[in-house]
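TA notes, week 10

Several of you asked for a full example with nothing omitted. So below is the full record: structure tokens for the whole chain, then the designed sequence directly under it. When grading your own attempts, check the secondary structure regions first.
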């Protein structure tokens, strides 16, 4: 995007009234990653590798953003699993990696999350792709949130 295009984009956004927005870090903050511990125990031999994997995945995502090379969440998760497995001298199959990554879409919220979000009933959460959001919303007993994944999709390159 050139400077002229950037200025035009900013100008269009200034014409709209600002609405209050609440932002949440979804994974670990709202969703309980401990639900993955059994899979890490089964597939990698230790639930202690789960926090290391998640930190590695975040590092891959953040570094990609910093160097202007978007890395989607799923690719970052898969790559981080390979890295963690290699460091732990564990062979992990593609099917096992996929099982762990797919389980991210079924994470339950922490017990206090649905009630804590109730006052924000008109607010929206964005997390991943629409199918992931719908699955996680069902897991949270229908807490008051709606998908705004198009915001994230617009950021993908």
């Amino acid at each position: 995007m050139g400077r002229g295009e950037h200025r035009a984009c900013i100008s269009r956004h200034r014409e709209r009234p600002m609405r209050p927005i609440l932002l949440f870090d979804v994974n670990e903050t709202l969703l309980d990653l401990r639900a993955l511990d059994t899979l890490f125990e089964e597939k990698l031999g230790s639930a202690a590798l789960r926090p290391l994997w998640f930190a590695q995945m975040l590092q891959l995502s953040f570094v990609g953003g910093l160097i202007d090379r978007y890395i989607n969440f799923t690719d970052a998760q898969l790559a981080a699993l390979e890295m963690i497995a290699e460091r732990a001298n564990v062979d992990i199959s593609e099917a096992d990696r996929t099982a762990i990554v797919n389980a991210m879409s079924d994470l339950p919220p922490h017990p206090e999350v649905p009630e804590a979000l109730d006052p924000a009933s008109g607010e929206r959460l964005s997390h991943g792709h629409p199918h992931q959001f719908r699955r996680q919303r069902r897991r949270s007993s229908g807490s008051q949130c709606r998908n705004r994944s198009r915001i994230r999709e617009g950021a993908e390159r």
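The first helix runs from residue 3 to 15. Use that as a sanity check on your answer.
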